[in-house]
Design a protein that fits this description.
Blueprint (H helix, E strand, L loop, with lengths): L4 E6 L5 H10 L4 E7 L3 H8 L4 H5 L2 E3 L2 H8 L3 E4 L6 H10 L3 E5 L6 H14 L3 E4 L6 H11 L6 E9 L4 H6 L12 H4 L2 H11 L3 E9 L11 E8 L4 E7 L8 E8 L2 E6 L5 E7 L6 H7 L12 H14 L7 H20 L3 E2 L17
Parallel strand pairs: 1-2, 1-4, 2-3, 4-5, 5-6, 7-10
Antiparallel strand pairs: 7-11, 8-9, 8-14, 9-10, 11-12, 12-13
Helix pairs in contact: 1-12, 5-6, 6-13, 10-13
Length: about 375
């Protein structure tokens, strides 16, 4: 029998319960050894769904370096503020641990590339936590892309129409800052931006964009972004992202338009298929919509559990994770290109040599 991988979680904020649930679902292959947060109460809260026996086996730490030295985990998930992802990730890799890093993988191109290079050198696995790639709806759509059912891709669109108010930002002062987070596009919208780039061919050649802060004058970064994206295969992309929708989250949708197919994934977080129409006529659209739709309790969906299962398998089989470090870099690069285009009022060519969220400090100061 394969020994269980020793697992540790760093960061016990808003998304941490999804990680703990994913660990429990993969308990036959993971040993939950340690959790780390600077606030002890957060650790207790995130472990509360576990049984008393399970909680007793998880060591608590307020310093991740001490945790790495004492626990020596095989796999670490980092779910802290985004600005700490790179430094913590490099320390975990140096300690010999594979990584699941919550989005974004880092806040600069240089840091993302450093993580990828370090993981390769240390022969550990690096996964960017873009869990929506594992949605049933998205997996079905990706199969159609891989089977070339769309034919030539013409254009796609990612719309993220959500709401985040003052109370959300007051829960964690790092939110909305250039040094630790970025704005709506980097935090809330990057999942769908990742999906658009992935589905449309990955290779972006140029971006034109606007960003602004229209309603959240208590944060540093943007609350709205609009972008046009040109792909190397001749297709185009449209990105609309905002956290100013009244009065609550409205939708997250992904449209894909090809010469031979039209698809729309919708719901709160692209969990359902709303349109499915292909020239080849394969499959009953009504049946596909029913079979590949989900109704998760929140916008985070059900993707963490299969993402964890894939990373565990990648470690055991010595292969790349389904969503690897390069995938995380591509999503980050596109958001940073949007920021750069909006700040310079000019088109931006890709690939970016380097760029970081901190390049835009002071962007929306009145």
């Amino acid at each position: 029998m394969t020994r269980k991988l020793r697992y540790a979680l760093i960061g016990c904020g808003r998304i941490a319960p999804n990680h703990v649930a994913a660990v429990s679902a993969n308990a036959s292959l993971l040993e939950f050894c340690a959790v780390c947060d600077t606030v002890p109460e957060r650790m207790e809260a995130v472990l509360s769904p576990l049984s008393q026996r399970e909680r007793d086996t998880v060591k608590r730490y307020t310093d991740y370096q001490t945790m790495l030295a004492e626990v020596q985990p095989d796999l670490v998930a980092i779910a802290t503020e985004s600005g700490k992802h790179a430094a913590m990730g490099l320390a975990c890799i140096a300690a010999g641990a594979s990584l699941i890093i919550e989005k974004p993988i880092a806040l600069s191109i240089a840091d993302a590339r450093a993580l990828i290079a370090a993981a390769k050198q240390q022969k550990v696995k690096l996964c960017a936590c873009h869990q929506n790639r594992f949605n049933k709806s998205i997996q079905k759509i990706r199969t159609a892309v891989d089977e070339n059912r769309f034919g030539r891709m013409l254009h796609g669109a990612a719309h993220i129409r959500w709401n985040r108010g003052r109370s959300y930002y007051e829960q964690a002062p790092w939110r909305g800052t250039w040094a630790q987070d970025g704005g709506a596009l980097m935090n809330q919208c990057i999942h769908n931006i990742d999906l658009l780039r992935w589905m449309m061919g990955d290779h972006v050649v140029e971006v034109m964009a606007y960003t602004d802060n229209l309603q959240h004058d208590y944060i540093e970064a943007e609350d709205i972004g609009m972008a046009l994206v040109r792909f190397s295969n001749g297709a185009y992309g449209i990105i609309e992202g905002t956290t100013s929708i009244y009065p609550h989250n409205l939708e997250e949708t992904l449209y894909l338009f090809g010469e031979s197919g039209t698809v729309k994934a919708g719901g709160k977080s692209v969990n359902i298929i709303e349109e499915w129409d292909f020239r080849d006529g394969r499959g009953d659209p009504a049946t596909i919509k029913m079979e590949f739709g989900e109704n998760p309790p929140n916008v985070y969906g059900f993707g963490h559990t299969p993402l964890y299962a894939d990373v565990i398998a990648a470690i055991l089989e010595d292969r790349e994770p389904y969503v690897n470090g390069e995938a995380g870099l591509r999503a980050l690069e596109l958001v940073l290109a949007i920021y750069q285009s909006a700040a310079s009022h000019a088109p931006v060519k890709l690939p970016l040599v380097d760029c970081a969220t901190t390049d835009f400090c002071g962007r929306f100061e009145k």
